[in-house]
Design a protein that fits this description.
- The chain has one domain.
- The chain contains 14 helices and no strands.
- It has helices at residues 7-27, 42-61, 68-86, 89-93, 97-118, 121-127, 133-136, 139-148, 154-165, 168-175, 178-199, 212-235, 243-247, 255-297.
- Helix 2 packs across helix 6 (121-127) and helix 3 (68-86) packs antiparallel against helix 5.
- The two termini are 38 Å apart.
Length: 299
């Protein structure tokens, strides 16, 4: 019988490590190295370490291991998300708009894209404790995912969250409220993973939810609104986010330059991610067609 990973001792050590990091980051934040949390988050810490532990255990359990490049993509995405949430990057993101936009680009685009590209769900499921697996199949969870990944809802939600958290009045309130700040980060990360997992599913329909044509249309639908928002912020002569002046910028930069760089991050890398997604979808389509041909002719 396979021993549960990491075992109760492992979970205890995980909690002990988290408690130590919590105390250090709370009482001695300025003395901590850059790679340590500025503001420790138990949810981010546990989500990262548990998912990684279950993933590695799942690799030993699944009959067909995912390709090495998928494993690498998943690990890179998880670590990128952790880096922007649980290192001193988070401190700079709270005091510079363009760094904040770069952090959200990771959470909503690059990190989520890589996690989805890893297609690690079956592997993580195989490594989870047995008593937790039914939670994934709970009706509430499935209905929530059905709504979030509905083809008419997913692109609206993806772009809508980006716009919502950047409404000047909302953004000012969020940056001054730690709980709302955490909520913003979690919604961006989870929505990004849900959206890109839907678009980058390597399987044909069925069992995938969407056809290739629908996925391509969704990619096009999210591209233009992001370009518009990025252009507005990068070309505007008005500072929409004075909260960064109020809190104090940690890099010597004017408010407009800070905003312009942030707008460019929304505009250019966001557009490139859409192009990358389109390429991945087309490659997956071609591979699925080749597999179908081989199966048809018994090659």
């Amino acid at each position: 019988m396979t021993r549960p990973f990491p075992g109760w001792l492992g979970y205890a050590l995980l909690l002990g490590l988290g408690a130590a990091m919590d105390i250090l980051s709370r009482d001695f934040p300025a003395a901590m190295p850059f790679w340590m949390p500025w503001e420790f988050s138990w949810p981010a810490f546990l989500a990262t370490l548990l998912v990684l532990g279950w993933f590695f255990l799942g690799l030993a359990r699944v009959e067909k291991r995912p390709a090495a490049w998928r494993v690498g993509a998943f690990l890179a995405g998880v670590m990128l998300d952790y880096a922007v949430l649980q290192t001193h990057v988070d401190y700079y993101a709270q005091h510079m708009f363009f760094i904040h936009r770069a952090a959200h680009f990771v959470l909503h685009h690059l990190g989520a894209f890589l996690i989805a590209l890893g297609f690690a769900g079956p592997t993580i499921r195989a490594g989870m404790p047995r008593f937790l697996v039914p939670l994934l199949d709970a009706r509430a969870v499935r209905r929530t995912m059905d709504v979030m990944q509905h083809p008419a809802v997913a692109p609206v939600l993806f772009v809508g969250l980006l716009y919502f958290w950047l409404l000047p009045q909302i953004h000012t309130r969020v940056m001054l409220d730690a709980d709302l700040y955490d909520l913003m980060n979690w919604t961006m990360a989870l929505n990004g993973i849900a959206f890109w997992s839907l678009v980058l599913d390597p399987r044909p329909k069925p069992p995938a939810r969407l056809s290739v044509l629908t996925r391509a249309l969704m990619i096009l639908l999210i591209e233009l609104p992001q370009m518009v928002l990025g252009a507005v912020l990068s070309l505007s002569e008005r500072d929409y986010y004075p909260v960064y002046t109020i809190c104090g910028r940690v890099i010597d930069m004017t408010a407009l330059n800070d905003q312009h760089y942030g707008g460019l991050i929304i505009w250019l890398p966001g557009t490139l991610m859409s192009f990358a997604a389109m390429i991945v979808v087309l490659v997956a389509m071609r591979l699925n067609e080749e597999r179908a041909e081989h199966a048809r002719f018994g090659v």
